[in-house]
Amino acid sequence: MLAVVKRPHTNMMLFEIKGDIPNQVLCYLQQEFGPNVNIVENDDELVNIFETDWYKRVSATITPGDAVKVYRENFGLSPMMLGQKLGDFTEDFVVDMECGKREISREVAEKLGRLFEVPVERFLF
């Protein structure tokens, strides 16, 4: 059975583009979306995201397993491929690490750190 759900219209901003945007892109967006495009020229000072309270709150909730999954997906690896790169681990082994069912050993964390070129601590509690 198929259910179709229509989402209500919202005035919330869907996305924001920052930086030097070519005029061709701006013209296309204005032509495609008309009055729904809001162009704001803003010279606000940039903020280091790693120093914001938001980042600290979010990063505190990310588990080592979440980090494994994010890096694996960013590198375009399947759980099976990552298992092979770590040294003949099964797909289930990798999925269990990502889900928190299997603790990540120091040895595996070191392999992950070398593979993804990030600090080992990202994969340890």
Relative helix content = 40-55%
**Quick one: how many beta strands?**
0
- For the termini, the CA-CA separation is 44 Å
SS-derived structural category? mainly alpha
Tally of contiguous helical segments = 6
CATH architecture type of the domain at 62-123: Orthogonal Bundle
Radius of gyration of CA atoms, rounded to a whole number: 21 Å
Percent of residues in β-strands: under 5%
In the predicted model, the low-confidence regions spanning at least 5 consecutive residues are none
The averaged pLDDT comes out at 84
CATH homology superfamily name of the domain at 62-123: lambda repressor-like DNA-binding domains
The CATH topology of the domain at 62-123 comes to 434 Repressor (Amino-terminal Domain)
Q: State the shape.
A: elongated
Description:
This protein is mainly α and 125 residues long. The protein has a domain at 62-123: 434 Repressor (Amino-terminal Domain), CATH 1.10.260. It is 48% helix and 0% strand. It has 6 helices and no strands. The chain has helices at residues 23-33, 53-61, 64-74, 79-87, 91-99, 106-116. Helix 4 crosses helix 5. The longest helix has 11 residues, at 23-33. The termini are far apart. The model has no long low-confidence stretch (mean pLDDT 84).
